[in-house]
Amino acid sequence: MTDRPLTIAITGASSGIGLRAAERLAADGHRVHAICRDPDRGAAAVARISVAARHPARLVLADLADQKSVAAAADRLGDELDHLDVLVNNAAVFDQTIRRPRFTADGHELFWATNHLGPFRLTAALSRLLAAAPRPRVVTVASKGLVTMPRIRIRFDALDSADWYTPTRAYYHAKLAQVMMSHSLALRAAGRADVACVRVPSVRLDPGRVAAMPRLLRVLYAPKNRIAHPPERIAETYARVATRDSVWSDHADPGGDARAALRGVYLDENERPVDAPAFAYDEEARERLWAVSQGATGDPGWAW
């Protein structure tokens, strides 16, 4: 683990794992930029993060579902920083009360826009700041729930269609895309930036988030919430991955099959390399997803 203070940006830092990871990283002496959607919750989070921080945390406002907001946040970081050591793409929407699909001003389904297109656009926009760091790293987040869906695929012909929508389908569809983005970025930036995608297990929700649920959903979720991992536990994983000395390719076998060649990108909560869903190893599908994502986010430039 590095002893050098790192400059780290983390999305979704106003609650849950993101807040705890930001607290831990700031307490360890790193310079944390908390990227949050809501200004009031963001300000409260930054105040909390800064209590034990060696360097006061900075608030950056961004709604990942809004491409203009993402671009503005990246511009602000570009004005303030000469490099960025780590980007943690943590923010995601998984609101089970959204029973009908919602669409952004750009016409994208909300889960797809927030959980995939937003992180894709933000990573591209910050790639030059990352490339200016001595050992840049991009950390993205997927879900352990994908193990129950071994045949899940990207619905290229219906990415924003309402026909197949449920909040669960939309969430895991976008999370598969995040794994595939991580695989593609790891290969594109090989030797120049480290890439990790953390497979997050079920995590206990904050009390305020549970209280906001409809009564029936609270009752149904209560047993799961009791046995779920505390967010502090997974925040420790984030912090260790963000500051590790190793890189994903230390675990890979370039001469092996697709899984072996990418081993080390996808990690469980104990930072052990694990297999991703089969579709994430389909090179043609990954390239197609990259092209589709480029087009949907305004064809951003990349440092790698």
Automatic annotation (TrEMBL):
Transmembrane segments: none annotated. Signal peptide: none annotated. It holds the Pfam family adh_short. Gene3D superfamilies: NAD(P)-binding Rossmann-like Domain. InterPro entries: NAD(P)-bd_dom_sf, SDR_fam. It comes from the Bacteria. SUPFAM superfamilies: NAD(P)-binding Rossmann-fold domains. This is SDR family NAD(P)-dependent oxidoreductase. The lineage of its organism: Bacteria, Bacillati, Actinomycetota, Actinomycetes, Streptosporangiales.
